[in-house]
Design a protein that fits this description.
mainly alpha
C-alpha cells in the first residue's frame, strides 16, 4: 500500500512540475516576449533580459522538482559555465538536463 501511495505521489508531483513548466513557457511566449519587445528597443538588452528571466524560470523549475522529490541534481564545475564561450552538451536525453544547464548558464 505504501509503495502504491509513493507511486501515485510521484505521478502527481511530476505532473504538477510539468504543468507549472508548461504554464511558464506559455506565459513567456504570449506575455513576456511581447512585453520585452515593447519595453526594450535594443535587441541586445532585450535578449539579455529574456535570458535572465528564462534562467530564473529554469532554476525555479529545478528547485520545485527537487523539493517534491521528482529529481536529484548534482552539479560539479558550474563556475566554468558562467561568462565564457563554450559548447555544452547534456549527457542524458532528458529535458531536465537542459533545464539544469540553462539555469546554470
Amino acid at each position: 500500500m505504501a509503495g502504491r501511495l509513493a507511486h501515485l505521489w510521484r505521478i502527481a508531483a511530476v505532473s504538477g512540475v510539468f504543468a507549472c513548466f508548461c504554464v511558464c513557457v506559455v506565459f513567456t511566449s504570449l506575455v513576456l516576449t511581447p512585453l520585452l519587445r515593447w519595453t526594450h528597443r535594443d535587441p541586445r538588452k532585450r535578449a539579455r533580459r529574456l535570458r535572465s528571466v528564462l534562467g530564473w524560470a529554469c532554476r525555479q523549475t529545478i528547485a520545485w522538482s527537487r523539493r517534491f522529490g521528482v529529481i536529484r541534481v548534482s552539479v560539479e564545475g558550474a563556475d566554468a559555465l558562467r561568462g565564457s564561450d563554450c559548447i555544452v552538451v547534456a549527457n542524458h536525453p532528458t529535458a531536465a538536463d537542459a533545464l539544469v544547464l540553462l539555469g546554470l548558464m
